[in-house]
Amino acid sequence: MENTVSSQDHQRPPQQVSTTGSRIYPFEFTGTGSEFFRIWIVNLFLTIATLGIYAAWAKVRTRRYFFANTFLDGQAFDYLADPKVILRGNLIVAGAVGIYLLTDIFTTTYSVVVILLFLLALPFLIYKSLRFNAHNSAYRNIRFRFMGTAGESYKVYALYALLVPLTLGLIIPYWVFRQKDYFFGRLSYGSTQNRFYGRPGYFYAIYLLAGLITLGLIIGVIIYTATTALMADSGSSGKTLATAGFVILTSMLLFVLIIIVISLLKQFVYARLTNHCLNSTNLGTLRFEGSLKAWELMWIRFTNILAIIFSAGLLIPWARVRRARYIIEHIRAITPGSLEDFAAATETDQSAIGEAAVDFFDIEIGL
Amino acid sequence: MSRFAATLFDGKSSAARTVNVEQDGKTLRICGRDGDFIRSAPLGGCRITPPLGNTRRTIYLPDGARLDIDDQDAVAGLELYDTKHPGMKLVHSLESKWGLVVFSLAGLVFCVWLFIAYGIPFLADKAARSVPAAMTETVSDRAFSQLDKRFLEKTELPKSRIAEIRAYFEDIAGDMKGDLHFRLLFRKSPQIGANALALPSGKVLVTDDLVKMAESRKEFAGIFAHEMAHVQERHGLRMVFQNAGVFFVVSALFGDVVSATSLGAALPTMLLERGYSKQFERQADLAAGKYLIRRMGSTKLYRRILQRLAEKSGGNSAPSIISTHPNVKNRILRLKTLEKTRK
Question: Do A38 and B96 touch (CB under 8 A)?
Answer without folding.
Answer: yes
